[in-house]
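To whoever is on call:

I kicked off a structure prediction for a single chain this morning and the downstream step that reads the tokens threw a length-mismatch warning. I double-checked the sequence; it's 96 residues and nothing unusual in it as far as I can see. Pasting both halves so you can look.
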Amino acid sequence: MGNETNTFASLPQEEAWFDDIEARFEFSAEHKLLFGVARQAWRRCNQIRGRRDEEGVVWPGRFVPRANPLISLEVTTRNAFIRALKALDLPEDEDG
């Protein structure tokens, strides 16, 4: 588990989205930190999703199957991403 290889990195278009947002907005030091947190949470969510996809959604339990604990981690990191984006309070894109 100590192996931190980024097997399930963000897709290039996702990284391009982050780069585009970073280029379009002038962030204060605090907002740069928040944006970094959002980017890190998204990457971690992708890593967890990839592991969950490999391992499956359901694990065998003692008496009945149970949910893979990675599901909870995926939800937590996705929520961290959403909270960080909301805290940035970026204006809505006029292009849709």
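Update from on-call: the warning came from a stale cache, not from the record. Cleared it. Sanity check on the structure: The CA atoms of residues 34 and 84 lie 6 Å apart.
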